């Protein structure tokens, strides 16, 4: 008699966690300079995206950045079968601590993912963690859940590491493609509705929502950790998908397009700009763009201004060509300066990213201060050069790293030795931040 194997499908209770602000500050702890420590606050789009692809399960998002002491009560009240935790490099230690707390509570499986897990999965190869998602997880996390709900042994799911014996994460790398975007499934924005009034653009006190138009970046700046998400590919959502996701945030006036580079595919960005202009959504947009894209395609910036683009984030990084070359930035100061003029002429606000090196002397701080002032950057954002695990910069500087506690990898601490006396370095850095933000406008 032929026996058919029937899969028993179990609806799972899944808790997705955004960790609390957990980065530490050397200038504050060592020198009493309390104006540098960053506070990250914005909706957890990565978790909303994952949840959107799990609508046949009972899913809850817990944002510990908004309610940092809520984990124990949430575990008791919700009783999850599986807990997923995402986070940045400076949150990696906290992610492990959260995983341990979950295991102390009960028998829920623990899965971690996000940018640090994608670049340094070995870090999470620890007893409190059951699975690691490496790279974009919208499709692969769903595949893991499906295998678990059907009671199957976890097969070799590309991009999923089952934590087991040994010291390293063993998994099959995923060959990312458009299928990993799962375009036909929208983010579950409704799962953070109770937090929505906390997600604001602080400089204007405006509600702000996050939408992704693309993942990855085709460029290879040596300090950037984005490559780990898609193994270096640049994948764009369809125009219809982007318009749908924006429409799901009807009462949000400002939309941050949470891409590493919204305009990397100029043809796609042009079609998207035309669609946004035609749709007349009455939204304002913030997006990332490279300065060479502005210079080579000023008409694209004009189109997007007409479509509602209010501000762009531009990675200028440095103010001399030799430093840009050392970063593999593939750009120049002349192009940066030309882009600034074009954006000013169009009327687009400039949020300028700059990186100060631990090797900075007083003269380097002076030069950067003059550049920012002379070029009228509307909102300068200044970070400290940080070798993040998994990046080429980390491999190049590994022998020079003196602080290995990831809590300090906030991009506002020097984890290698400073050329100036450390206190002087942080005083100059704090002063530069204060000067930059004094006249900031957005």
If you had to describe this structure to a student in words, what would you say it looks like?
It is a single chain. This protein has two domains: 13-178, Rossmann fold (3-Layer(aba) Sandwich), CATH 3.40.50.280; 199-438, TIM Barrel (Alpha-Beta Barrel). 35% of the residues lie in helices and 16% in strands. The chain contains 16 helices and 15 strands. The protein has helices spanning 26-31, 45-52, 71-78, 92-105, 115-119, 138-149, 227-230, 239-247, 266-279, 291-296, 298-307, 321-326, 333-346, 362-375, 392-397, 422-438; strands spanning 13-18, 58-63, 82-85, 109-112, 131-133, 160-162, 200-201, 206-211, 214-215, 235-236, 254-257, 284-288, 309-317, 349-356, 379-384. Residues 1-8 have low confidence and may be disordered.
């Amino acid at each position: 008699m032929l026996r058919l194997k029937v899969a028993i499908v179990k609806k799972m209770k899944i808790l997705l966690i955004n960790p609390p602000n957990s980065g530490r500050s050397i200038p504050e702890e060592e020198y009493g300079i309390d104006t540098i420590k960053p506070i990250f606050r914005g909706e957890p789009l990565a978790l909303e995206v994952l949840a959107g692809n799990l609508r046949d399960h009972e899913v809850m998002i817990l944002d510990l950045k908004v309610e940092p002491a809520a984990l124990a009560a949430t575990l008791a009240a919700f009783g999850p079968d599986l807990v997923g935790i995402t986070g940045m490099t400076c949150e990696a230690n906290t992610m492990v601590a959260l995983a341990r707390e979950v295991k102390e509570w009960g028998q829920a499986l623990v899965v971690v993912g996000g940018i640090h897990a994608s670049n340094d999965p070995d870090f999470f190869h620890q007893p409190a963690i059951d699975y690691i998602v490496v790279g974009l997880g919208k499709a692969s996390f769903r595949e893991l859940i499906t295998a678990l709900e059907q009671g199957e042994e976890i097969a070799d799911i590309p991009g999923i590491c089952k934590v087991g014996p040994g010291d390293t994460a063993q998994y099959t790398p995923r060959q990312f493609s458009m299928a990993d975007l799962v375009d036909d499934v929208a983010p579950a924005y409704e799962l953070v509705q109770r937090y929505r009034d906390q997600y604001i653009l602080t400089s204007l006190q405006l509600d702000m929502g996050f939408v992704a138009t693309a993942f990855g970046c085709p460029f290879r700046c040596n300090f950037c950790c984005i490559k780990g998400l898609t193994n270096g590919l640049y994948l764009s959502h369809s125009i219809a998908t982007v318009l749908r996701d924006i429409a799901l945030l009807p009462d949000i006036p400002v939309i941050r397009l949470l891409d590493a580079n919204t305009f990397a595919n100029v043809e796609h960005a042009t079609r998207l700009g035309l669609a946004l202009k035609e749709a007349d959504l009455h939204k304002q947009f913030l997006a990332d763009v490279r300065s060479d894209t502005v210079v080579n395609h000023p008409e694209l910036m004009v189109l997007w201004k007409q479509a509602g683009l209010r501000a762009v984030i531009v990675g200028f990084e440095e103010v001399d060509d030799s430093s840009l070359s050392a970063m593999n930035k593939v750009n120049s100061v002349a192009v940066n300066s030309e882009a600034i003029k074009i954006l000013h002429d169009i009327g687009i606000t400039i949020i300028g990213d700059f990186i100060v090196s631990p090797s900075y002397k007083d003269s380097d701080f002076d030069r950067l201060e003059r550049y920012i002032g002379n070029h009228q950057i509307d909102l300068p954002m200044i970070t400290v050069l940080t070798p993040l695990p998994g990046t080429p910069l980390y491999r190049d500087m590994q022998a020079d790293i003196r602080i290995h506690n990831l809590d300090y990898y906030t991009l506002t601490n020097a984890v290698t030795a400073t050329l100036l006396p450390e206190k002087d370095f942080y005083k100059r850095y704090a002063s530069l931040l204060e000067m930059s933000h004094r006249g900031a406008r957005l």
